Amino acid sequence: MKFMKIGTKPDTFYTEEATRTVISDTPSDLTIRINNVCFLLHKIPLVPKCGLLQRLCSDADDSDIVTIDLHDVPGGEDAFELCAKFCYGITINLGAHNFVPAFCAAKFLRMTESIEKGNFVLKLEAFFNSCILEGWKDSIVALQTTIKLPEWSENLGIIRRCIDSIVEKILTPTSKVSWSYTYTRPGYIKKQHQSVPKDWWTEDVSDLDIDLFRCIITAVRSTYIPPPQLIGEALHVYACRWLPDTTKSRPLHSSGSQTEESREKSRRILESIVSMIPSDRGSVSIGFLLKLLSIANYLGASPVTKTELIRKAGLQFEEATLNDMLFPSQLPTDQHFYDIDLVAAVLESYLVLWRRQSPLPTENSHMVRSIRKIGKLIDSYLQVVARDVNMPISKLVSLAEALPDVAREDHDGLYKAINIYLKEHPDVSKADKKRMCRMLDCQKLSPEVRAHAVKNERLPLRTVVQVLFFDQESGSRSTTHKPESITRARQAPIEAEAKEEYDKKVQNEVTKSSSRVTETSEREIQKRMEAKMVRGDSEKGKERKGETNSTAKMMEPKQVFQRRSSR
């Protein structure tokens, strides 16, 4: 930061309540009133340097005491005091932080060269051109101070010239960046890095007001075509600087006017950031998009902003990780902790695009791999939110059922989520248990999970019966499997017929078992089914010993089902 010192005399201004005066042997003959402050000064030396005061005092005699109201002086009483001290020759220090109000006040008072040579405006312009615009942080600080005097700064060209200076430095090749800048990324140490990072400018620019920040980003993008990720990084840094963090806990909602004013400012910043996100996919991360969506829910952003964030997040949902999705709910009416509605909305957006791009996906296509990656991600998310003791079962089921069948190559992850929910919610009704377990496809459970499900007392009887029957059939198929390719080819149609007959048998057994629930305990039925499995395995073992030719081997699955039917 650069400074300029003007004047040589010591500071003789002093303040007493709302009056500011100069220690002098000469009585005051000029009173300047600005807002609630009264300045007791002297016509000499102020009037000769200020064209405005010359005009206002033109009708007064030299001996008259003149009182002037200057309530509209830009920068107020502090800016006027700098101009007055310059007239008295008192030492003043100028820098980027006070240049704008001093320059605007000097212009207002017409302290130009036409009034007196070497006047205040000339010195301020020289300082602006040679020091402020040449410096990186000086330009940013000066630009930020223009928000208090936007019209004067715009009319005097301060805003435009500061923006041009900042953009020119941003576009400078990193090898030629020699000025000081702020860069506090985790793990980055300047002394250990020889080259300047491409996003070296993002943190300093994030100190600007959102409208000025937008001007910088717009100017950068209109001057040349920067990498979309670079603009995205600048937006990410700005959001972290100014928007509330909703990732760790549920923010407190307050109805206070000051809080509401702050929320309105945050909403404006959020909507501006969303509108500046480049259309290129990957310009910002999916984690950042989901974070913005969570903040939008908290701030009550416009539906247009939320819809745009959901659309962009849906395009990149495949890149998400579990941690990217774990946000607390921002609605005060929600008792549950996790914002499962946010994930459901993004998933729905993703599925719309997925179905549009791949109405009939093949087994090895990219779209199948994509949807299965999403399936595993959603099942992992369900396992986390299932631990929320206040999570409604309807929201869990709705999210689980939103995925198409092809999304789950197996149902192990879904089973784990259901088991966790039943464990954390022991008072869930039988109807809700059945509703959850109806989503399970027992044929897509691994042997280890089926073994766990058979012994799981939390599951409904219907589900246990289905697992037992399928586990028994799976075991029979594995024991009768033959390695010869010809045998496998001949067995295929027979096994298909046997499977169809078996499915009907399972349905009949389940129906019968369900009707006997009121008479027999679930545990007794389970033991009965296990006994059937043992007897079935014993009989199949005897049958296999008596086989003597390949034709009999091929007909074995059908015979097993026929014997089950006769029993």
Jot down its keywords.
mainly alpha, elongated, single chain, two-stranded antiparallel sheet, 567 residues, Potassium Channel Kv1.1, Chain A, 25 helices
Would you kindly provide a brief summary of this structure?
The protein has 567 residues and is mostly helical. The protein has helices at residues 43-49, 51-56, 76-88, 99-108, 120-132, 136-145, 150-155, 158-170, 202-205, 210-223, 228-242, 257-276, 286-299, 303-315, 322-325, 340-357, 366-385, 393-401, 412-424, 430-437, 447-454, 461-479, 485-515, 522-545, 550-566; strands at 3-6, 13-16, 19-22, 30-34, 37-41, 66-69, 92-95.
What percent strand? 5-15%
Runs in which pLDDT lies below 50 for 5 or more consecutive residues are 254-258, 481-499, 509-522, 534-567
**What is the CATH class designation of the domain at 4-156?**
Alpha Beta
Named CATH architecture of the domain at 4-156? 2-Layer Sandwich
- Category by helix and strand content: mainly alpha
Number of strands: 7
- Strand order in the largest sheet: 2-3-5-4-6
- Helix fraction by DSSP (H/I, runs of at least 4): 55-70%
CATH superfamily of the domain at 4-156: Potassium Channel Kv1.1, Chain A
CA-CA gap between termini: 94 Å
Overall mean pLDDT:
84
Large-scale geometry: elongated
CATH topology of the domain at 4-156: Potassium Channel Kv1.1, Chain A
In DSSP terms (H or I, runs of 4 or more residues), the helix count works out at 25
The main pleated sheet reads as:
5 strands, mixed
Keywords: Ubl conjugation pathway
Region (Disordered): 473-567
Biased composition (Basic and acidic residues): 496-507, 519-547
Pathway: Protein modification; protein ubiquitination
